[in-house]
Amino acid sequence: MSVKESFFGRISTGKNINLYTITNKNGMTVSISSFGGAITNIIIPTAAKPVDIVLGYDNAQAYERQDTYIGSLIGRVCNRIEKGHFVLNNQTYDLYTNGHNHLHGGKIGFDKKIWSVEIMKDNAIKLSYISPDGEEGYPGQLSVNVIYRLLDCNTLTLDYTAWSNKDTLCNLTNHSYFNLSGYDSGNVGDQTVQLFVDEYTEVNELSIPTGKILPVKKTPFDLHDPSAIKNGWDADFPTIQAAGGYDHNFVVPEYNGNNKKIACAHSDKTNITMTAFTTLPGFQFYTGNYLDPKVKGKNNIPFQRRSGYCFESQYFPNAVNIPSFITPILRAGNIYKASTAYHFDY
Hints:
The protein is mostly beta strands and 346 residues long. It is built from 2 helices and 27 strands. The protein has a 9-stranded antiparallel sheet, with no helix packed on it. Strands 1-2-3-4-5 form a 5-stranded antiparallel sheet, with no helix packed on it. β8 and β9 form a beta hairpin.
């Protein structure tokens, strides 16, 4: 069991970026960059060979250039806020819009920040960032800690805490793209996914929730039983066609702030199974529909379209503008707490 620090590159401002590699007693390793808090590698020591099961890049400069959030921490608010507009305490806030909506924290979100890193006991590191009042248009100074811990049972946990000196919004996630056959194995369509949910949030053509929560039954979102991802990602279903695949928020059943099992994925090629858990009320299942083969990742391997998938734990997209949704408002003096975990069997 160990945490090792190494140099990961120098970004355009001249700042040096470090990489922190955590190893458990089984030889499983997870590497995290101080730039964007990105998970750069998760290496599973299967009997056949070690398999790196997340998409990523070889150095910090590439993470600085990227625009698909691969592996990174996302904030202040992950996913979408409709037209970058919300009202809090009778004051209107207008945020940067990446396209039609505010997406994943804005123009320069938490994925582009340098995080302070503290090596902790128990095979963990703590990443910290203080977002100034007004950054990306959000009110309040927001202090954020994220603890990455690798357990000997081959579980990676992400524990988030945040607090603000003013009422603000807070909805944090990690945007890792998983490919259990290996980051360099291409299309993930043959891998199976099982979602432990009964409902999803209906969206319009711009992927903004309408406010309706609908049953997954008799839709391509019914993944109660393990199913090859390719069986549904080109389904004749309007919002799947509009998104070019799965890119939808699912409702965690009986949400109460406790850890719930939300998804399971498996690769027959490597026999790796991943089970995901979260304390949050929702998660986005996304199948890498916008990955661009012109962009190259680790070892100069192009990112094929649909070569990875994400389970992004979250409050529902645009929740601040939909009264029936659980709010992502963080009141001054309160503490935001959330946890996500990924457990691996092989």
